[in-house]
């Protein structure tokens, strides 16, 4: 999986053999993964999660898989929890989850996610969220700006490039 770890940096390969990059991923408080259906979001989250569990001793992971399609093998386990120091909350298909809820509940979830994005780092909680479009309607005001890393897969619309990579959008092809 190729990523740009810092603004205007050459894309790198995420692989457990790339120790420096995997350790750097572990230092990022939050990660947003966007892309159209079939672009590889779930696979990318799998690889990143694998790297995190390899390079962060005793890390604890919680997986929310609304569609029960990307991470079903963990279903039999009571928790996929390993660490008492850092917790990772992975929500795949976040927008689909919000769309399936009534408005009040969805707003409560957005508020909780916003608080975790803003306060989670100091609490040892980090979010990894996968969704098809990172529209502002899915995040409370300013919460989307709390992602320290954005992994974009496939062809992005002009709007997505502007929302997620405003300073870099003209260099994307």
Q: End-to-end span in angstroms?
A: 17 Å
Major β-sheet profile: 5 strands, parallel
Q: Percentage of helical residues?
A: 25-40%
Helix-strand string: EEHEHEEHHEEH
Envelope shape: globular
Structural class by SSE content: alpha/beta
Determine the mean pLDDT.
Answer: 78
Work out the number of β strands: 7
Q: What is the radius of gyration? A: 15 Å
- Unreliable parts: 4-9
Question: In order across it, which strands form the biggest sheet?
Answer: 4-5-6-3-7
Strand content of the residues, in percent?
15-25%
Please tally the helical runs, counting DSSP H or I stretches of 4 or more residues.
5
Could you give a quick summary of the protein structure above?
By secondary structure, this protein is an alpha/beta fold.
Protein described:
A hairpin with an 8-residue loop joins strand 1 (2-3) and strand 2. Helices cover 34% and strands 20% of the residues. It has helices at residues 19-27, 41-55, 94-99, 103-123, 158-164; strands at residues 2-3, 12-13, 30-35, 60-65, 87-92, 125-131, 149-153. The model is unreliable at 4-9 (pLDDT under 50). It is built from five helices and seven strands. It has a five-stranded parallel sheet. A two-stranded antiparallel ribbon has the order 1-2. The two termini are 17 Å apart. Helix 1 crosses helix 2. The chain is α/β, with parallel strands linked by helices and 173 residues long.
